[in-house]
Specification:
Radius of gyration: 21 Å
Strand order of the largest sheet: 13-12-11-8-7-6-3-20
Number of helices: 6
Order of helices and strands: HEEEEEEEEEHHEEEEEHEEHHEEEE
Largest sheet: 8 strands, antiparallel
Helix content: 10-25%
CATH topology: Penicillin V Acylase, Chain A
CATH class: Alpha Beta
CATH superfamily: Penicillin V Acylase, Chain A
Shape: globular
Mean pLDDT: 91
Low-confidence stretches: 13-20
Number of strands: 20
């Protein structure tokens, strides 16, 4: 067994059915000064998920893995990029390149399906868990991604590992890529959010069930001679789903984004995005009976927010909630060498002591 297959087995161990393993929620914001922000959570409810920050310089060569455990072609980076990876540094789940292209993968079990792997096409084949890296290192815009992927065969690196992708570029476009029956399907993303299955068009249709929601308080009503008054504030959002299923998270993300106040600049939008994503932090007790609960503080293992305009990646983890930042503009992608490091440094949560 090739060394990377150990990570694949962990990633796919519970993908055979509807499981608590993966639950990702993405949300985007645009600031008044034009800054564009993409945020997301990533969940894994079984154990602490090895996660890494990865720096990929221009010209770096990466081996592309194949489902049979062999190496296909070698990918040479056209553009420098920084990614946040899961299981092992090769599997970038969320990232940004120096041209302002942002790509993130969201698990899509049961609803998507790739073409079958054919060894004779190995040179034109990319595994799903490395496709984010392919996009970030080869393309500057979504149009370039579409053109490049039309020449590739995308396959699953392990059975049950099905993914769809969220893309945004510096031109302001947001699109979703889903592969169903081996065919690529692209969707413009008018609501600026994404979750897991079902498919993106299904989620858009489902939003129509919540047309009655609005911010603020519901007006006073009457039933016969009885006056109806809201029991508490924010009653206009009564009926907003609060559970952690993918359809509910999509609706909640769409409504939170729609009602979010427009921020003056990118940093303010980043901070607001982190607060909105707090709504999608999955308590570990919801995923496991207490007697089975693994040694995790949260099923939401990390949360990231990307400022496409300032070329910055911000993230925090369940173990260390301090927000950390990677500034791509401070990186010389021509002279730097490939590097990866754990998202957490192994230390304890930082606490600032308040003194009187």
């Amino acid at each position: 067994m090739k060394k990377w297959m150990i990570g694949l087995l962990m990633l796919s161990a519970s993908q055979g059915g509807v499981s608590p393993a993966w639950g990702c929620t993405g949300i985007s914001l645009v600031a008044r000064d034009g800054s564009r922000v993409q945020g997301r959570t990533i969940e894994w409810a079984h154990e602490l998920l090895p996660s890494y920050a990865v720096l990929i310089p221009r010209g770096h060569e990466l081996p592309l893995m194949l489902p049979d455990g062999s190496v296909g072609s070698t990918l040479k980076a056209r553009w420098g990029a920084v990614g946040l990876a899961v299981s092992k540094p090769d599997f970038v789940a969320e990232g940004l390149n120096e041209k302002g292209l942002s790509v993130g993968l969201f698990f899509f079990p049961r609803y998507g399906g790739y073409e079958s792997y054919q060894p004779q096409r190995a040179a034109e084949t990319v595994g799903d868990l490395q496709l984010t890296t392919w996009m970030l290192t080869q393309c500057a815009t979504i149009d370039e991604v579409k053109q490049g992927l039309s020449q590739l065969h995308i396959v699953g690196l392990n059975e049950g590992s099905v993914i769809h992708w969220r893309l945004a570029d510096a031109e302001g476009r947001q699109e979703v890529l889903e592969i169903v029956g081996g065919e690529q399907h692209w969707f413009s993303n008018p609501v600026g959010v994404l979750a897991n299955g079902p498919g993106f068009n299904w989620h858009l249709t489902n939003l129509n069930n919540y047309i009655n929601l609005y911010p603020g308080d519901a007006p006073i009503g009457m039933v016969g001679n009885f006056t109806l008054r809201a029991i508490s504030g924010s009653s206009g959002m009564l009926g907003l789903p609060g559970d952690m299923t993918s359809p509910s998270r999509f609706v909640r993300a769409a409504m939170l984004r729609q009602t979010a106040p427009i921020q003056p600049d990118g940093w303010s939008a980043v901070k607001l995005c982190f607060h909105l994503l707090n709504s999608f932090d999955v308590p570990i007790g919801l995923e496991h009976p207490m007697y089975e609960s693994p040694d995790l503080l949260s099923a939401t293992q990390w949360t990231s927010v990307i400022d496409l305009t300032a070329l910055r990646i911000y993230y925090r983890t369940a173990q260390q909630s301090t927000i950390r930042c990677i500034d791509l503009r401070s990186i010389d992608f021509e002279s730097m060498v490939y590097a990866s490091r754990p998202l957490d440094d192994g230390g304890e949560e930082q606490v600032k002591l308040v003194r009187w």
